[in-house]
User: What shape does this take?
Amino acid sequence: MIPLNHVIIFSLIIFIIGMVGALSRRNVFIILMSIELMLNAVNIALIGISSAMGDLVGQILAIFIITVAAGEAAVGLAIVVALYRNRLTVNVDAINLLKW
Amino acid sequence: MSWSQLFFYVFAVLAVIMSLMVVTRRKAVHSAIFLILAFICFAATYVIMNAELLAAIQVLVYAGGVVGLIIFVIMLVKAEEDEVKQTHGQWIIAAFVALLLVVEVAFVLLSNLAQKTGGLAAKMAQAGGNTEAVGVVLYTKYLFPFEVASILLLAAMIGAIVLAKYKLER
Assistant: This one.
């Protein structure tokens, strides 16, 4: 039985890594991968709490999060393909047409 | 310390190392390969935390599907020039929020979280395994959210096709 504190800390560390990657990198693929890491961190916390509370609902929620993450990846990558076709770059700093 | 606990810490440290490699590599393909390894380490920790079905879904959907899709699209677009700077000015905001979350890590480390032992294992043994237990709850109590999730996936699929379609009229 793993202490719940350690599971939550593991989840938080993965979330911090994903957040720093999503906020500070310029390559749009690495930003998308960092978002996947953040969603996985939430899954780890849900499964750890589900195991600690003796309740299956956390695992059900994790399945729904995986569904949303798969949809997010598909739509995000489609947007990247459309952007690359129009602007010929994957650098998010070069995509600033709507920036104030 | 039991073997399963020891393996949890081993896979957790491996997952943290792989995640760090994902956000620090210069080439996106290298990041994608490390992302697959990180997802497999996550799946190993799920098995230790009594979630065998989710471990299988993690390997099939994430390591097999999502990262495969990302690698396909990386190969569709031209590789970016290597000389360009890899980070931008938002790293200050990222460092600030990370600092707040590190404070939360310290708080969680010092707090004492209550937990019941053995409740989930007994429930799963009664249902005949993790997959059966999750399936019974998913298809009875959570049937409506399940259908909503399927509609969401359909909308995402149609949206992805429409966005990525080559415009013939141009």
In short: The CA atoms of residues 7 and 72 of chain A lie 26 Å apart.
